[in-house]
Amino acid sequence: xxxxxxxTTLALLAAPALVGAQQSAPVASAFRGFESSSAKNLxxxxxxxxxxxxxxxxxxxxxxxxxxxxxxxxxxDYLCGVISGAKAPQRAPIAASASKDALLARLKETFAFCxxxxxxxxxxxxxxxxxxxxxxxxxxxxxxxxxxxxxxxxSQFANYMRINxxxxxxxxxx
Length: 174
Description:
By secondary structure, this protein is mainly alpha-helical. The protein has a single domain (25-171), classed as dinb family like domain (Four Helix Bundle (Hemerythrin (Met), subunit A)). 62% of the residues lie in helices and 5% in strands. It has helices spanning 2-22, 26-48, 65-84, 100-118, 139-163, and strands at 129-132, 135-138. The chain has a two-stranded antiparallel ribbon. A hairpin with a 2-residue loop joins strand 1 and strand 2 (135-138). The radius of gyration is 20 Å and the shape is globular.
């Protein structure tokens, strides 16, 4: 009986410390969670869009579905590298005219880089400034810009899908 009481007491005493450790980087944790859900949704949308619709764009002035995929892949490597401080992989350029399989593979590779490079991200450098597109920005600002970028591109994918009679992944009943 004393062993059970001791173990229970120790577990209860340790619980607040464990919760505090998990919440010591709430911004990084939230960012990693958003990256994970964005990757899932963007990849699912790219998989659901038929290959013959990869050249689709609602108006001549807009990017095609494939153009958005290329842009996303380049952005993932750049932004996740800047945020994590990791060197982005040197990849051979991929054109929007590449096959659906090639574009999907590249998108998956770049989200895998994000997963790997963001794994050790914490909140200690949020105020660190870095130059991005000719302007000094904090890592916190870059994380927020990245979240907005993923949301913006998923919105594009969802709209392109709907115009083509498809239901976006997040609109499907589970």
